[in-house]
Give the backbone structure.
Amino acid sequence: MKISPTLAARLLTQGEVVGVPTETVYGLAASIAFPSALKKIFKLKGRPQDNPLIVHVADLKQLKGLVTHIPEALAKLKIFFPGPLTVVMPANKKRVPSVVRAGLDSVAVRMPDHQTFLKLLRKTGPLAAPSANLSGKPSPTAASHVEDDLGTDFPVLDGGRCRRGVESTVIRLKKTHWELLRHGALAADVIQKALGDLPQKRNLTKRTISPGQKYRHYAPSARMVLCGSLRELHKNISLKKFDAVLGFSDTKRGLPLISLGVRGDFKANLKQLYAALRVIDTKKYQNVIIDMDFASSGLGATLAERLMKASSRS
Ligand code: TXA
Ligand code: MG
């Protein structure tokens, strides 16, 4: 159910959960002042309790209240605020309830680049919000996707189609060097230029630092097979071994094509990705082959990572 900004602000300040637009994907928001509403987010999504939420702020003043101290290097990152960058910092535990942090000592914070959402945040104060999909499903990039997942009675503030279409990039400072915890809408090499330090993608070790990374994500119900070799891809398309191919405008014809647009135009590809993954479900395809013939640098790394997650079974 699409609701007005005034009603969205009222519901959130009364401790309700509301779907909200951001430039990346739609979020499922609750005020950090209401632990009961925060718990409801986990329930609605079917989200594991050990996967912490990102807290969204309107400005640096709101951010300061959430952390014990601000890393000096944050000054270099201010050019990305507002924007699709999430920074994990030491949490002010008095302000940020444990349920948001999943018991960790840190909190992930971002300032979204979306006027409707920023205006809402100025009225409500910091809002915790994961992506508004059911756990394991592709993130919503339109208000109608939120209604598809949570029902048409669920309140959503409609902010149009998401400009980025893929989640924020998540980083954190570990002692003296930065770490990339999740690829996202801001390319790692762009962050590296600003910091003069390359945020490395953490390997999944015994102790998971960004808990969300260990879960299956962004996945349609179909079996999805990645194919990096064009020869193999063409063979499979000719033999019609799959129901459809997820690829680009120039992908070889022969099977129904779900296109992410022009190959190599990663911004456009990412913007269309989640809607394309939802099409696989609505068309009830069972076996889909994915054209992976693209460079995995810049935002290509984000596209590759999301497709790998979408095809993984665990
Ligand atoms: O673009 C986005 O980031 C969207 C919009 C709604 O802002 N939100 C989003 O939230 O993608 P979610 O919950 O789907 O993903 C949050 C990621 C998860 O991988 C989670 O584990 C990680 O951020 N995270 C949250 N708090 C953390 C913390 N304190 N330490 C490490 N990782 C954290
Ligand atoms: Mg998510």
Observations:
- The pocket of threonylcarbamoyladenylate (ligand 1) is lined by residues 22, 24-25, 27, 51-54, 84, 86, 88, 101, 104, 106-108, 110, 129-131, 167-168, 170, 181-182, 209-213 (CB under 6 Å).
